[in-house]
Amino acid sequence: MWADLHLRTKEDFFSNLSVSIVRLGLTYYLNDATKLSAGYAYVNFFPGDNHSKISQPEHRPWQQIQWHTKYTKTRTMQWLRLEERYRRKILNDSTLGDGYSFNWKLRYNFLFQVPLSKTGPEPKTWSFILNNEIHINFGKQIVNNYFDQNRFFLGFAYHTNKTDNIQLGYMNVFQQLAAGNQYRSIHTGRVFYFHNLDLRKKDRK
């Protein structure tokens, strides 16, 4: 099972909310290094520039292939994710419209990990993390912003035990706006907590 929760803020970190996401899915292991996942995400965009008095909901089915590679001293993780975005239309500043706008989003994520201990990513040790993810929009309703955004993360992971780790560091979000000729670069701090629970039955010898 895949589950992740997000709560993102704007410039005022603790009172100015931006987006919340609840994402669930099921994962099928092709082998220990390659996994297929599919699921559904509910996204809520808190009041913003073009809807300052209402939140905008979005329904987002998704499918993903993810693979891991282990080298002598480093680790990599990659995923390719396809999302179908059904975003509720907005009538005016304070009213949602009827129906949904639709587009596809393709995301490619690459993570590079360097353990900072001689024994590798063991409990109570740190790793260096370099992560980059690019988002591409496509579909009939996409006109100007095929490139959606790029997320670059640089930081560290602390391995609390064999299955869990906390990642913290700096993230830059470079985003193309809907007009197509406007961009914004967001500098932010990111904290992620990862819990990996493997419920597969182990072979008994």
Key features?
single chain; 205 residues; mainly beta; 10-stranded antiparallel β-sheet; 10 strands
Structure explained in plain terms:
The model has no long low-confidence stretch (mean pLDDT 88). Strand 8 and strand 9 (164-176) form a beta hairpin. The protein has a ten-stranded antiparallel beta sheet, with no helix packed on it. It is globular, with a radius of gyration of 19 Å. It has one domain. It has strands at 2-9, 17-29, 34-45, 56-70, 75-92, 95-115, 125-138, 147-159, 164-176, 183-195. With 205 residues, the protein is mainly beta. Helix content is 0%, strand content 68%.
Q: What's this model, at a glance?
A:
This protein has 205 residues and is mostly beta strands. Helix content is 0%, strand content 68%. The protein is built from no helices and ten strands.
- Given helix and strand content, the structural type is mainly beta
Low-confidence stretches: none
Rg, Cα atoms, Å: 19 Å
Q: Walk across the major sheet and give the strand order.
A: 1-2-3-4-5-6-7-8-9-10
Order of SSEs, N→C?
Answer: EEEEEEEEEE
